[in-house]
Design a protein that fits this description.
Largest sheet: 5 strands, antiparallel
Number of strands: 8
Radius of gyration: 41 Å
Number of helices: 7
Helix content: 40-55%
Strand content: 15-25%
Length: 236
């Protein structure tokens, strides 16, 4: 009888020991399972659906800053040039001999500049620089030198300048404005003043090939210069 009790006691102790040992093995396994679950949760964004990825792309595009678009600008007319030529012409008309040559020429130019100041408008729109007619901004027709519309994209500019140089900030202002562009077909570039501006000698000094345009400054030169700079018109 005692032997049976001893056997049962030993069996009970063995079962307790086994239960303790099994719990020691099960607990780390459970911990590992929990760790895997947490990793899966952390890595779930990596397995986002294609629709979620597209949504993220569109959200980023919507947050991207929009490109700044400058408003259209019509340059204010200036009567400085017309006034200077008319005044000089009238004064020279009272000087013997000169009154028969230089005086009338300057007077005629002054009258021409006066009429054109009332007539021509220089316009900067979103993508182009153009010449328009009157306050109604009607089309100016074809260019008298090379033909085609008097409208040039800012991207086509390769240079611009005022003559005499440095006169933009003076009271009288410059006499001529100049720009060169590549929008005009290249077979027209050597017509008019472009022949010397595109000569090998000029190109060797750093000039860029293109169509040359000169026009009297019948508008606010400071405002014209500011718009050339704002619109990123290329300048050597």
């Amino acid at each position: 009888m005692n032997t049976v009790i001893q056997i049962r006691t030993i069996a009970f102790v063995a079962l307790v020991v086994l239960a303790t040992e099994s719990s020691a093995f099960v607990s780390p396994l459970a911990k590992n399972i929990n760790n895997v679950s947490s990793l899966a949760k952390q890595q779930s964004p990596l397995r986002a659906s294609p629709f979620d990825q597209l949504a993220n792309i569109f959200n980023q595009l919507e947050k991207a800053p929009a490109k700044k678009v400058l408003p259209p600008v019509v340059i204010d007319p200036s009567f400085n040039l017309a006034g200077i030529f008319l005044t000089a012409g009238i004064l020279l008309d009272f000087i013997p001999y000169i009154q028969l040559t230089l005086g009338p020429l300057l007077t005629l130019l002054g009258v021409l500049f006066l009429v054109q100041t009332f007539r021509i408008r220089f316009v900067f729109n979103e993508t182009d620089f153009e010449l328009r007619l009157g306050d109604s901004l009607d089309g100016s027709g074809d260019n008298i030198v090379v033909g085609g519309e008097n409208r040039w994209s800012y991207d086509s500019f390769v240079n611009w300048e005022f003559f005499p140089k440095g006169w933009v900030d003076t009271p009288q202002g410059p006499v001529l404005a100049y720009f060169k562009e590549t929008q005009t077909p290249s077979d027209k570039w050597d017509e008019g003043p472009g022949k010397s501006a595109n000569a090998p000698e000029a190109l060797a000094k750093g000039a860029v090939p293109g169509q040359v345009h000169f026009f009297p400054v019948l508008c606010d030169a400071k405002q014209l210069r500011a718009e050339f700079e704002k619109r990123n018109c290329a300048k050597l």
